[in-house]
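Researcher: Structure for this, please.
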Amino acid sequence: MLSSSGMLLTALIVLWRKGVPAYITAYKWQAWLLASLTAIVGYFGEDPRLYVVSGVLVLLKGVAIPRLLGEMQRRFGIEPKTRPYVNTEISLLAAGLLVLFAYVIARPLMAVTELPTREGLPLAMALLFVSLFIIVSRRKAITQVIGFLMLENAIALVAVVGTYGVPLLVEFGVFLDALMGLLVMQIFVYHIHETFDTIDVEQLTRLRH
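Model: Predicted structure, token format:
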């Protein structure tokens, strides 16, 4: 429950703070919280395989991916700051409504399950909705990449709390999907910057017209 709340809080930080370094830090903490939750479930569920999943989470999402994001930030750090499509106040209000909506949707599911992790289900669904909102409400491509990565974390969180652990092979498949997705998006963002000298997706929309 505490780890799920912390993961949701890191997504809200992205809506509240301004600056890609803060977003990268929020994602890194989110990954560590997901890893800790996975290890806790492995301990109480007596599933040692989840320790392996937790370790891979730390190495891939808690260390490797934040470093790649940091490299992207250093590459494009000289870009002028851009305003998001939705300002901070409205973004936080929308996030609050999405959290309430997640609790409404998750209530019937919580009523039919006896899993020890069922209390984290609405928080996991709220993280899913907030991550989607980050993707559609931000203008910088790199911020949208972070939103996508948080969305993948949210899916993993739903799997962990909704099944009290996930099969090792399935989780490794998700890891590879996330890593390949990041690498493809990194190449895509680099290409955008080299071609248009900006990673502001609003500017790209104007160029199309």
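Researcher: Any notable elements?
Model: Helices lie at 2-16, 20-44, 49-76, 88-111, 121-137, 141-163, 168-196, 201-208. The mean pLDDT is 78.
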